[in-house]
Amino acid sequence: MVDFISEVEEELRKDDYNKFLRKYGPFIIGLLVAIVGYVGFLEWREYSETRTARAAAASYITADDLLQNGQPDQARAAFLALADKAPDGYAGLSLMRAAVISTDAGNAAEAVRLYDAASARFDIPRHSELAQLKSAYVLANEGAWDDVERRAKAIAQDGAPYEYLARELSASAALNLGNTALARERFNYLANVPGVPETVARRAQQALTLIGTSEQRSAAPATASEGTE
pTM for the full model? Predict the structure, then answer.
């Protein structure tokens, strides 16, 4: 009797299981297919990204070899070609290398354009701001102080990665634009605020000394003229 009852219960369980499969089986199968498909997609994407990164690395090394072997024009072309097809990180770095070559060749306008393009291709803010800073340095060498002021101000925010270098450029821009009072204020900040890198603070102090010396020289003729009257 016990065996009979056990057999009946087993058949009932099988019947419930079959009903469950008939009702929910298609959904379960669909879910399993979706999971397998998604895992396969992730593996394919990882493989594709790895392959693309390796190809970009090889192309970058080839371009760098051209530069090291004294072929800057060919290297620049190779870096630009890589930037057109590489992932954003390699693209931004390649554009910056091309910008350096343009700077060395005396083509400041092209260098600025490439640094700006590099800044747009980086997805890490620190890298993007570095490209902007380098662009501002090129403009400073060209004496385009209005542009330097505008660009430096954008990356001289409190806590920004290149805050103090940008502030230094901004102070230099004010000085070269003839706003001595603002330049003194900005250099004084860099010379005295805690946390400023030592080299930046030292240059700021030197700039303040030069500003003071320049003002003394400017005031000397006027003082001498008053003394003769």
Answer: 0.71
